[in-house]
# Entry
Amino acid sequence: MSRQWGTGFLLALQFFSVIPVKKQLPMEKSHITAMYAMLPVLGLIFGSMLAGSVWLLRDMTDSSPLLIGFAVVAISLVLTGGLHMDGLADTGDAYFSYQDRDKRLAIMGDPRIGAFGTMVLLFSIIGKIIIVSELIQTISLMLVFLVPVFSRIGLLALFSSTISAKPKGLAAFFQQQADHGKLRITAGCFIAISLAVLIWSTGIWTALILLVLLLVSFWLYRAWCLRNFGGVTGDLFGAYVEGVEILLWISLLFFV
# Structure
């Protein structure tokens, strides 16, 4: 069992981070399930790096809020290798093409980025830098730590509860292989633990506000994916992570 979880963690690093894992790993049902179950743990690692960077720049130097905001966004991009931003750009190109479902999926599979994808990408990156800069001087390091965790818990829940929009592809293969029942239970456990930590660090009202926003955004995004694409793809997963993190940063700006 421990070997299975260890393989799942290495697979999560291999597919969802820039951390190199130069090893041929098995990808059976149990390993794929463990990989997705490890996503919140990957969020813990990313959150620790972000919180440590904020502590170093904010509390140990005289860095400006804008520089810290830029560093937070840049580090997030580096840690994921731009994977989720790529998904966001492809989603923007596909959705704003205003084509039918099949054409949107074809556009999403095109490796080239179009005008709409570029605009969505720029708006996301610049907006995130501005938002983080506005609140970074007063925000608790615990909240910085939890942002990547919550986004990946949501990704785990979305993956385990939504059908694939394509019959083939890497995301479809993973969905066919994974044990969705176990992953939904895992997502619920991580939500409960993270909520308890959030209540302990910020108080019950802030925790409840963020929980409601996460649940509502999850439901709306899932419904949007089903209506416009017939399910989810790897790009839509990436867009979800970026969108939820922006939503969380905005929420912290107004409610904390």
Q: What stands out?
A: The chain has a mean pLDDT of 91. The first helix runs from residue 2 to 16.
